[in-house]
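Exam revision sheet. Question 4 asks you to relate a sequence to its structure. Input first:
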Amino acid sequence: MADKSLARETSAVVASAHAACARFRGTDPLVVGRTRRQLAAEVGFPDESGRVPLARWMRAMTFERLVREDRFAAEIATTAVGGLGLDRPGGIVTSDAHEDGGRTAGLLAEAHDRAVSEGSVTLIHGAAIPFADFAERDAAEVRPDFVVVAARTDRDGASWLILGGAKDYERVRSRIEDSRLLKGFLQVALGAESAASWSQVPTGMSVHSCGVLAVPRNAFLQPTALVESLDDHRAEVRMRVAERRREVEQLPLVEPQDLANHVAHLRATFDPATCTTCTLFSYCRNELRTSTEPTDLLVELGIPSETRPHVIGLVDGTGPLGRAPASVVANVTATLEGVGQSTGQRRIDQAGRPGTVNVVLAKSDSAALGVHGIAAQRITPEGCESWRTTVFDDPQSARCRREVMRLLGRELSAAMAEVRAADAAGAAEVADSSEADSPVPVHLVVPDQPTADVLVSIADNLAGVELSRLRWERDEHMGRAPLTFDGEPAEIPSPLQETERIAVSFLLEADRARALTLRSPIVDLGEALARHVVAGGPQVASHRLDYLLAWAESTTDGPVEPRELEDEIEAALHTPGARLTSRSSDAIHEALTAPGDQRSEAGAHHGETSGYAALVTAELDYKRGIVERALDVLEAVPDSRVREVHREIEGDAQAVWRRRLALRASDLVRFGRTHRYWRNALVPVIESDDKCRKQLLALTNPQTAEDLAVDAGVREVAVATVAGTSPLVLDVDSRRIGGGSRIVLLRVNGEMCVERPEVGLTVQKGSFKFAGLSIGALTSTGELATSRRFEWEPENVPDLSVGDRLVVADFAWFAANKNNRFLNLTRPRVDDVSAPKPTCEPSSYSEAPENHERCCRPHEDAEAERADRIAERRARGELNPEVWPPVADSDGFEVAPADAPVADVTAEPVTSPPDDVTMDDLE
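Answer key, structure tokens:
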């Protein structure tokens, strides 16, 4: 066993997502003398779930190489020192410790001397530091990716040691997920804590309280540095280290013959949503599967510990106890019966309707925004068109990203033209209807959220590039050299074509729409199907559309065996979403990187169709088939009364977007770049959206209505039981709803009242009016023994029987109208801040800029002004590289200097990751 492998695992344990698990800690390499992957194989459950795809490993190695490039190493060191408020470096020196502790100590001493005598800053790659409180164990080393040494400004003859790490985290919508950054800084904090206790740190050198994380700033993996305080992270690390030391001392080195017993006696903290990246996942899951304890089934399903006592009776046959969420009861019931459980909700999504475009894609693991191929299908008033499939030979390139947008833009443009014609034809038949006020919306339909994330991230990237181009074109027009934010020569990209801009603008609209839960420019088929069926097995498994689809089809095709289905889905070669399985990713990457004369044959040894294009096409074919099956299942679900309500809400919002697009005004604004005024103005919009969403769910979803009614924190919805029918008497289980309250009947037993044939819907300009619901006031019966019993006199008297279980709501929650004939649901507000008004014309801003500055000002004009403002700051010496400390560039992830090195993951020969490295280590 190589010490290096043990060191990597033993230093990662403190920052691991599994550190709270006693079995994970108890199988530390210091205790078992081998890596966890080897341990898993020796106890009979070799790990596959945490295996790193070849393309992902090559991406990590490529990013590590870029971090070591002199140019980027100098940038990282400079940014770190400037971000900490230290003096400008007198020079930048880089060196490599080659993960050797003795060499690290020597280089630190040299760096300290340079810092105090010359003011130089040193960046050391590949440092090796004894693990905090484990210096006596040779294998226990922390290996930070780099450390920075700089002179202190508050003390002569002293220096700072700044710990750093490098993580090639993917940016989603220009941002890196906070949980990933947290984990990355925890690993940096472990290095800082270890360095603080190392006796060979030079005298006069102190560990800084902040750390540095090098992450990609753009799609080409060019590094940038993030600086953050490590105080809280180090406190957690100290706690974990102390805990780990106690356990290591209590658990002596395990002999090979005792491994199985040692692992078995350690209690696992199992969570199917997070444990999949642990190499012992299969072992722990099998332990639960073979257990005879009823509670272990609930653990296997991922039921929260506080909910298990309420549903354990479903497993052992004693019946449910207390008020468990209806969705949890349905999940357990489906698992026991092998049949998906209907939620009772009718259909509200827009998938499969004219104006929708079905999209599937195969994402490359070798690039944050890389796409191997894409397939799209447009739904027209005449029916479904054929799928159009495109395979990209250069998945990492900017050209590939623009081609993806061009293809989507073409489909969206055609869809808008078709629904516009249909809308115009029907406008004469509907009062107060016009395309300008509320056009028929268009939608992209995707199999899962990661597919949407990839598309929106590409759009976000291209929007930033386009805005930079507009500024640089202004510079050229004004006779200025186009420069990056850091003052280096820039290469002006080609402009977005019209079809590309349509897709980019639409996807950015979808990005902003995430703040509003009733918006649906992108329809997630998995989410849509989950509204109608609750699957058995682990709840997290339902995030895969093919798994959820099998449960949906079980209602007609017959029961499934949950564990067999879960294993079958995990073993499948393909996935329904954008991200590939490791096997498929490896085959495609090997075919992509094969020499030209071998490319058509690559992949044949994997047992699949040979050739890069054939492999990608087979992947897309599987995804297309899943989408078509899911649409067929949804087609069999009856439409809800409020399906048109959701369509109208999206139409209202897209009317604003179409004005943005037509006038090129604020249509390329990313959510992360909206100014403070816009964000503040969104608060009441979000509030109205949230209230309308809850009201629609209470009206249409039986499970949600039940959960709201039994939730002690919800005042507006309650359970009632029919105690008498002549007169109508109800026992209302609520302290808020009582005598004098006016209520509306939402559900009778399992049936939602709004879906009854006698209920009518009228779409009005400011509200949605429902007629035919039972609405009326409650009157106390005066019976002291039954203080929650009331007479009810609704205008529309429902057909009820004694004992019927009802869900009722306070009418004032919905509307303020006085009569009991109608329920008016207020339309949610639209996000029309910084958007053209319906009266704005293409010439409005140029003719009266002072009146239209905040509505229809084109991007070209706004970016020209920003370019002039940047040029003025640069002339005053307020921008990089003149100013110190460096000014942070909010768009730095979009563009880079023309001569900067870029990543090319396909240029190097494919190498396999070390056996001890898992996805948990990389992510």
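Marking note for examiners. The chain is about 40% helix and 15% strand.
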